[in-house]
């Protein structure tokens, strides 16, 4: 919080003026202040609170996310990504609103269909109600899909922005794939499809299926890619809807450790791979991003960034042994890289996007945490983060 009495070249608004132009009440501003969502940019020496146009932009985001169904705690975390320019922010909001519009159209059509069924007497009320509930529940998924996609973008951004590798991860990973005599390819856990986004090789005359358990991620991949070159599907890897020996290659990029049933997932991958088929499975080791864990533990020893150590489920150290049950020839290729992070806000965004309890532990302490990271960055100049990742290539 800045405390100044001689602010120049900036348009300032009193609390009353700010509430008036934003068409909200003073009580709303006070409530958002208490929740840590929106604090005035300046408090003058005389105690007057002054808001800026940047605060107005932040308020617009709060109101939009609230309208779209995010909780106040979720909005607090979403607002950490504050460096996004206004145009990019509005584009993201527009995409979310389009999803909401499409959902409401589906609800409207479902209500019309329900009316017709009840009027005709061809359906009982229980079936009609259950169908409507299923349609309405999809609205909850919009929020979850956005959070999942946004968190993935944030984590990918940190690696892309601060990597010291000679070749970016997805370009390197793609270069390891062998396409000779490979006509059918399945990627499980495709995420937002970035592996294929800058693909320099023509994928025509090949059948490429991109799948994910998350419908939202598959939608993101569709938006990123030319849909004529790929087929998109939603399913869990433990139940792959293809016949035996259908694929020449299966790709699992940082995905196998997410399998709910590892043995069943590997049985399915092995089943759909043809004789001499290849699995490309990336993973990371126990030292991967260890400095990030050390930082958050220094701030709060009770914070953990993942519910469990994913590398214990499938990682660099145990991957070959785990794969040997299903594959005869297994090699591991390391990826040489580390991060040199110079912006504490990018690091904060990454931490918030993780799968652990950090959001719960940081609730009400965000400013304190950001100040902690700022201090660390000033002391060190940059934060060097270990990367410990690579690729298993396994052949049947």
TrEMBL record:
The keyword rRNA-binding is annotated on this UniProt entry: no
Occurrences of domain HTH merR-type (ranges): 12-81
GO molecular function: DNA binding; DNA-binding transcription factor activity; S-adenosylmethionine-dependent methyltransferase activity
One Pfam family matching this protein: MerR_1
Top-level taxon in the UniProt lineage: Bacteria
InterPro entries on file: DNA-bd_dom_put_sf, MerR-type_HTH_dom, MerR_fam, Methyltransf_11, SAM-dependent_MTases_sf
Keyword annotations from UniProtKB, A to Z: DNA-binding
PANTHER family to which the protein is assigned, alphabetical: CHROMOSOME-ANCHORING PROTEIN RACA (PTHR30204:SF96), REDOX-CYCLING DRUG-SENSING TRANSCRIPTIONAL ACTIVATOR SOXR (PTHR30204)
The protein's name: HTH merR-type domain-containing protein
Organism in which the protein naturally occurs: Ileibacterium valens
């Amino acid at each position: 919080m800045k405390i100044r009495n001689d602010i120049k070249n900036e348009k300032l608004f009193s609390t009353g003026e700010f509430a008036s132009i934003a068409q909200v009440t003073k009580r709303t501003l006070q409530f958002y202040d208490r929740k840590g969502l929106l604090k005035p940019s300046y408090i003058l020496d005389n105690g007057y609170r002054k808001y800026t146009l940047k605060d107005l932009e932040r308020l617009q985001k709060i109101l939009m996310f609230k309208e779209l169904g995010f909780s106040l705690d979720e909005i607090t975390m979403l607002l950490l990504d504050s460096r996004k320019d206004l145009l990019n922010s509005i584009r993201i909001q527009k995409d979310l609103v389009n999803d909401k519009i499409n959902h409401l159209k589906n609800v409207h059509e479902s209500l019309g269909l329900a009316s017709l069924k009840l009027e005709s007497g061809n359906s009982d009320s229980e079936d009609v109600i259950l169908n409507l509930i299923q349609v309405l529940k999809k609205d909850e998924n919009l929020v979850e899909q956005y959070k999942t996609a946004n968190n993935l973008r944030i984590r990918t951004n940190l690696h892309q922005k601060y990597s010291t590798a000679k070749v970016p991860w997805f370009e390197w990973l793609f270069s390891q794939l062998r396409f000779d005599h490979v006509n059918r390819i399945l990627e499980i856990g495709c995420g937002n499809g970035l592996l294929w986004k800058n693909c320099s090789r023509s994928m025509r005359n090949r059948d490429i299926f991109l799948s994910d358990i998350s419908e939202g991620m598959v939608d993101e991949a569709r938006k990123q890619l030319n849909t004529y070159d790929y087929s998109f599907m939603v399913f869990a890897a433990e139940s792959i809807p293809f016949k035996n020996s259908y694929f020449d290659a299966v790709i699992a990029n940082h995905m196998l450790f997410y399998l709910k049933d590892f043995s069943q997932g590997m049985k399915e991958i092995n089943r759909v791979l043809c004789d001499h088929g290849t699995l490309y499975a990336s993973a990371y080791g126990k030292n991967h991003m260890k400095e990030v864990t050390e930082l958050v533990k220094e701030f709060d020893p009770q914070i953990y960034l993942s519910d469990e150590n994913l590398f214990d489920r499938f990682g660099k150290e145990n991957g070959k042994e785990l794969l040997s049950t299903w594959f005869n020839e297994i090699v591991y290729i390391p990826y040489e890289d580390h991060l040199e992070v110079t912006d504490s806000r990018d690091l904060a965004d990454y931490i918030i996007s993780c799968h652990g309890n950090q959001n719960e532990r940081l609730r009400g302490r965000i400013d304190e945490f950001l100040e902690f990271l700022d201090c660390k960055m000033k002391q060190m100049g940059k934060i060097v983060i270990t990367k410990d990742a690579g690729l298993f290539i396994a052949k049947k």
